[in-house]
Specification:
Elements lengths: L1 E3 L17 E9 L4 H18 L3 E8 L6 E7 L2 H13 L1 H10 L6 E11 L10 E3 L3 E9 L4 H18 L3 E8 L9 E8 L2 H13 L1 H14 L4 E13 L7
Helix pairs in contact: 1-3, 4-6
Length: about 250
């Protein structure tokens, strides 16, 4: 795999200062048939206006499903900077004009979900990267049993991330829900990259069968007195990179 703008050793073992920025994960649900128009609005207007007003690009993806959604992550210095950036963006005359022009044939987006995030202390540094051949991405969310988020963090820190890398996945970034937000005490959100969908399936099959994983899981659950995640508490969303994403 050929990479540009990426230090190849950007694993969890690389020492770096914790990223203290506030991140926002946004999911746009386009009206039927409006996804390409939404992409065009981002390419032609939104991205530049984000930069103008201090919204830092992390990555842009679409869900790998029949009715695709746009998923993206932006970053801010802090919550006050986030509020000011969005206020200035929404009030920008160039945005108002671009928005009005884009919806002449109907609104593009039905609804938007927003989640505020902070990186964990073990997250790799976020690196903009472009892979050739193209990769697929996976956004995973874990909801823990009561009080077990620190135990889940420790399992990822000491075992899971290494085993993901061992079996072919790339750890991109790990988040907690931001302080004061719903899920802050019990939710882990992270992003992986895989060479392909088939490679992703094989990676998880090999990972689950790895004796080191079985040992790490058993030890963590014994220490916690049971499962670290609630029933059906693990969800996965497969993503494909937008052509304008800085991570793809």
């Amino acid at each position: 795999m050929l990479m540009s703008n990426l230090v190849s050793s950007c694993s969890q073992h690389e020492a770096h200062a914790k990223d203290e920025r506030l991140f926002e994960l946004r999911v746009y649900y386009p009206h039927p048939g409006k996804l390409e128009a939404l992409h065009n609005r981002f390419r032609d207007h939104t991205l530049a206006l984000f930069e103008k007003h201090g919204l830092e690009h992390v990555g842009y993806w679409v869900t790998d499903e029949e009715e695709s959604k746009l998923v993206y992550i932006v970053a801010f210095e802090d919550k006050e900077a986030k509020e000011l950036a969005w206020k200035n963006f929404i009030e920008d005359p160039d945005w108002k004009a671009a928005y009005a022009d884009s919806i002449k044939d109907g609104r593009l987006v039905e609804k938007i979900d927003s989640t505020l995030l902070r990186t964990t202390d073990y997250s790799p540094a976020i690196m903009h990267s472009v892979a050739d051949p193209a990769r697929v991405f996976e956004l995973r969310t874990y909801k823990t049993t009561d009080g077990n988020l620190p135990n889940l963090d420790e399992r990822f820190r000491s075992a899971t991330m290494d085993l993901f890398e061992k079996h072919g996945a790339t750890n991109l970034v790990y988040f907690h829900i931001a302080e004061g937000e719903p899920g802050a005490e019990d939710t882990l959100v992270y992003l992986l990259a895989h060479p392909s969908t088939d490679a992703r399936h094989k990676m998880f099959e090999d990972f689950r069968n790895d004796p080191d994983w079985k040992k790490a899981r058993a030890a963590s659950e014994e220490a916690a007195g049971g499962s670290l995640t609630v029933e059906d508490g693990v969800s996965s969303l497969m993503l494909l990179p937008a052509d304008y994403s800085k991570i793809r």
